[in-house]
Specification:
single chain; alpha/beta; D-Maltodextrin-Binding Protein, domain 2; seven-stranded mixed beta sheet; four-stranded mixed beta sheet; 13 strands; globular; cell membrane; Bact_solute-bd_prot1; signal; palmitate; SBP
């Protein structure tokens, strides 16, 4: 397994290096006071935000690159430590991955944004994951959720109905597979995608039983391997065995999974709400609806993962710090937030954004309003290695190189190491 991981890492880093060499470069034009450099994972939504920012600031040019989360996380720490990072960059909330707030703030890579006018307006739940040691480093503009997203037309043509219980889900998957149109597209060639089905299940299975699970985990009163996480893992593998996903998820990229769901090759996809915009990009006339993924037979107990999505931070050594702050201010303004949210399909973090929420997100909006949500599980884990162990471990589960119990035990080992 170690050899395979090393080879995969070398391959990923090589791809990143080649991509950087072939692009304009995240540092291109960084010495020009009217040029901003930006690196983002918000493919499909950052483009219009950049255009609007440039239009509002005549003479300003934003040189930006977009990449998948796996590639981005593999390179951003190296760029920051070597002094080649862009002025503004995607930063995730909390502590869950190599590009997260705590991970990048601790060594001093990010600029303190506490004095920005929007920082004090963030709700307390968002401040907790946007700050490190009481200082704000992350401009969080959107609230995201995870659930089952259905292609309404494909679902209607199949003659099936979206499942509302776990028993229904198993029948739904078997029936959909029998009709030759699998229920859900799964693109776990990109390893960050592996977590989403598990998080959607764990919201109900783990936190539905015990909302204080994370507190107990931090206090050493429970473990992943000795808790309801084993049930969530078992349901994930049960879904795979029931034919819920298309053939060869490990050979399917995130991009390819979007195409499957958008074009009706599958009835849907289990993803974050941001996927709706991407699906509409591939099928402009399509309609897509998100629901909670059934994890038990009691729909009244369903919870959805919902939390602040990735935001933007400023490089502490930005070559154009003034323009970087101007861009962050725009992102967090009602105009910028509304544009970003509506393009991304997210909910706003500040109440005055005036965002028109996609009608396909009605159930997510209801769950948020009724406090039937739990944070993305990794955001308050003590280090990024816990999530990385989970992601690579889940790929190994799908390739029969590890068991779910192995993965949970490995996660416990990394969790106990702390920060």
């Amino acid at each position: 397994m170690k050899t395979r991981r090393f080879a995969a890492l070398v391959s990923a880093l090589t791809a990143v290096t080649l991509a950087a060499a072939c692009s304009s470069g995240t540092n291109a034009g960084g010495d020009d006071k009217n040029t901003l450099t930006l690196a983002s994972v918000d493919q499909g939504s950052i483009e219009d935000v950049v255009k609007a920012f440039e239009a509002a600031n005549p003479g300003v040019k934003v040189n930006f690159t977009t990449s998948g989360a796996d590639q981005y996380q593999a390179q951003i720490r190296t760029q920051l430590s070597s002094g080649t990072a862009p002025d503004v960059m995607t930063v995730w909330p909390g502590n869950g991955n190599p590009g997260a707030t705590y991970v990048l703030s601790k060594p001093g890579y990010l600029l303190d944004l506490s004095d920005q006018p929007w920082a004090a307006k963030l709700p307390d739940s968002f401040k907790q994951v946007a700050q490190y040691e009481g200082k704000t480093y992350n401009a969080l503009f959107g609230l995201n959720g995870i659930g089952a997203v259905y292609n309404d037309e494909a679902l209607s043509k199949s003659g099936l109905k979206a499942p509302t219980t776990w028993t229904d889900l198993m029948s739904f998957c078997r029936d959909a597979a029998g009709k030759g149109t699998p229920a859900y597209a799964l693109g776990i060639q990109d390893n960050w995608v592996t977590q989403l089905v598990l998080y959607a299940l764990a919201a109900t299975v783990v936190f539905g039983q015990d909302k204080d699970f994370n507190t107990k985990l931090a206090a050493g009163q429970t473990t992943f391997a000795g808790s309801a996480w084993t049930q969530a893992m078992a349901k994930y593998t049960e879904m795979d065995k029931a034919g819920c996903f298309q053939k060869n998820p490990l050979g399917t990229s995130y991009e390819a999974s979007q195409t499957l769901a958008a074009t009706g090759k599958t009835l849907g996809i289990i993803q974050g709400n941001w996927i709706i915009t991407l699906l509409k990009g591939k099928n402009p006339n399509g309609k897509f609806t998100m629901t909670a993924l059934p994890a038990t037979d009691n729909a009244a107990t369903f919870l959805m993962p919902a939390a602040a999505g990735a935001g933007y931070g400023v490089n502490a050594k930005a070559k154009n710090k003034e323009l970087a702050l101007k861009f962050i201010t725009y992102v967090m303004s009602p105009e910028g937030m509304k544009l970003f949210n509506e393009k991304q399909g997210s909910l706003p973090t500040l109440p005055d954004a005036g965002t028109t929420v996609d009608p396909g997100l009605k159930q997510l909006t209801t769950f948020v309003g009724e406090n039937k949500t739990v944070p993305f599980m990794d955001q308050l884990w003590p280090n990024a290695k816990v999530q990385q162990t989970m992601l690579s471990g889940l790929q190994e589960v799908f390739s029969n190189q590890a068991t779910a119990d192995d993965v949970l035990k490995d996660m416990d080992t990394e969790y106990k190491k702390g920060e």
